[in-house]
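Example 3.2
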Amino acid sequence: MAKGEALKAALESLRSAIPELKGVLLASNEGLPIAHALTNGADPNRVAAMAAAASSLGRRISEAMSAGNLGEVSVQADEGALFVYSAGSKAVLAVISPQGGNAGLIHLEARSAAKEIGDLF
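Structure, written as tokens:
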């Protein structure tokens, strides 16, 4: 399987494991979308840029705290949540959840997907 197909398969697997997600997106650390499955009408370019920015800030905080490598960043809002996972050294995985989404299940599935994606790079 080609790398692009494997990336899409990892995203689709995450989407099918948690159908209530509003979207998943893989972005470069520079904020460029690589692959996505967004159902909430969000602009993939904006989501990619925001996910990369959140990840960058999280990395800086982790370094300043001498806490090791960044694993994930989460943003909770009134209508939902955004979870951003480090996917290797070159990419981030963004998961958009509705309010009340099962954060434990999201973390379980998304951490596994981020590791799989990171290994592809």
